[in-house]
Predict the structure.
Amino acid sequence: MSASIPNPVRSAFTTHERDDTVIVNIGPSHPATHGTVQIIAELDGEKVLRTDVHCGYLHRGFEKECEDHTWHNLIPYVDRLNYCSALINDFAYCDAVEQMMGIEITPRTKYLRTLLSEYMRITDHLTCIAASLMELGAMTAFLYLVTVRDFMYEHLAALTGARVTYSYGRIGGLANDVPDGWFTRLHEILAEYETYIARVHGLVDRNRIFIDRLRNVGTISTADALHWGFTGVILRSTGVPRDLRKDTPYLAYAELDFDVPVGINGDNYDRYFVRMREMDESVYMMRQLMDMMPEGPINVDDRRCVFPEKTLVYNEIESLINHFKLVMEGPSVPAGEIYVAHEAPNGELGFFLVSTGGGTPHKVHVRSPSFVHMGGVHRMLNGYQLADVVTTFGSVNMIGGECDR
Amino acid sequence: MTTPILDLVATQLAPGTGVESHGVQHGVLVLQLEPAALLAVVTRLESEFAFDLFLDVTAIDWPDAPLRFEVVHHFYSTTHKVRVRLKTRVSASDPTVDTLKPLYGSAGYMERECHDMYGIVFRGNDDLRPILLYEGFSGHPLRKDYPKQLEQPLVPYRPPQGTLVR
């Protein structure tokens, strides 16, 4: 029976480069592929000669589905692109739609979105580091990091009602304001974060096993990284401070004081360290943001996109019709095109939206960092050991949801 | 809101180099090109104006237009910190533009996706194997005439078995 099922992929190479090599298939369902990615590799003993990376096993027609829903209805979908940092997807998408509509969000929403974006950056980096350390056998470091991450997930659940995919952004604002005592608990969590992260630094940074496994493995140069489209942590690990939060500031980043950590070699150890340092910067930014947080409304007063108060919907005909129009037809976004990019934990997350003036998009395209990185990851795998495929892949932090869409 | 570099690119590249029109939308310089001019314009963007990061290529389907597909390229300059969007109109009968693989390695994967989804052919890209779709998939799902509900299962569905599943 199984023989009749055709192979979904065609390898770039089927013949051997030399007669003493072997071609093996890694994945797609392997614990270290963080989802589903297939690598076809030609090996000389334990050394990887060349690789052919296939993705698409998680393709679910995100962009096609978006063309059939109203602008608001897409928010739960964009959550599921990079599910480790769902809110950044939410906010980048909302930002794009708001710019098309010419909406300026309220100050409180601007600061809250910035704070939550940094919060998401921490959870994403925690996940990535925890997973890649566990793949090297560091169960203790994994548990420390995931303990902190779970404090954060529970804390975010108190705000949004969900643990991972929040659907918390709204066009023109947010779903709800923060509950009482939320910032107090956030201060506690950030203090806990520092305790745990110090333990991980102590366990890993100067550990001989880790240095041997990570240093000078998966190295990439700045010129190569740009040529192959790498952004985010991977580009910064090569030593250049390219960060959209500094270069093209959005939300409240222009008002914040923060550094852009960079690496030296562009190897796996640098990527580990850049992520660790970036989380510290995020904590620093979140503390600034909590001090700056203004009072006031979270939703703009714009009937084109913001839902009216429930009490008004029940008691007033205009609000009732407004509510119906928003649900049935969707917010009317002026015709045009826009490309908006936010600095996601993995790199440049861009939304390219095309509107023809209706309540549903004509086209939604996501420039997902993971997908572009998969196009260049063979540069970091070729020439190293087979066992290094796992560590390098972990340090790239490919997220199937946003890669395959 | 324009930056000096965008003005410079716009004046240097237009007119006469195959740029049909230009303008700034939401901070991004948009150039409408003739298909034949694409490779020459991108080469100049890369070598003269330091647009070193190829961000994205996709297409927009306008089913009723005489030139049905609009191929959209995005570039970013890490030096000037600005973006440029190039737009090229091609017909449904000959949806071909030049590949950018010789200039940017990242173009290889992204052009494969665009070929998957819209059937755009990138002249000179010898590796347009399916990337998000699978071998044997027929049609291009992001074209407007591809029905959303159409299924092409690679493994045939099994009929419900047993007593619990009805």
